[in-house]
Amino acid sequence: MTSTRSFHVPGISCGHCRAAIEQAVGEVSGVDSVSVDIDTKTVAVTADGSVAEATLVAAIDEAGYDVE
Predict the structure, then answer these.
(1) Is the pTM of this model over 0.70?
(2) Cβ(21)–Cβ(65) below 8 Å
(3) pLDDT (tens digit, 9 = 90+) per residue, 21-63?
(4) CATH number of the domain at 2-62, please?
(5) Helices (H), 1-66
């Protein structure tokens, strides 16, 4: 089952931030899509239900951004 999860990432401020997060999260097995909204500082991830939230948070963290 596919689900969409949203994360607030206050450090998002530009296109580079968006690209870094989309690339890092997009590489996680089971992720279907990643959408970063610079204005609202949110990351929406659509992924297989087997992908743990902690795995997505870790991918965002590895890109250099903290999830609140």
Answers:
(1) yes
(2) yes
(3) 999 999 999 999 999 999 999 999 999 989 999 999 999 999 9
(4) 3.30.70.100
(5) 15-26, 53-62
Instruction: Find tokens 């297989």 and name the residue.
Output: 48
Residue with tokens 């939230």: 53
Amino acid at 36: V
| CB-count burial class (<10 Å; 0-12, 13-18, 19+) for 13 | exposed
Residue 21 contacts residue 66 (beta carbons within 8 Å): no
What distance in Å separates the CA atoms of residue 61 and residue 57, rounded to the nearest whole number?
Answer: 6
Q: Which residues of 24-46 are buried (b: 16+ CB within 10 A; e: fewer)?
A: bbeebeebeebebeeeebebebe
Residue with token string 């963290």: 61
31-37/2-8 β-pairing? unpaired
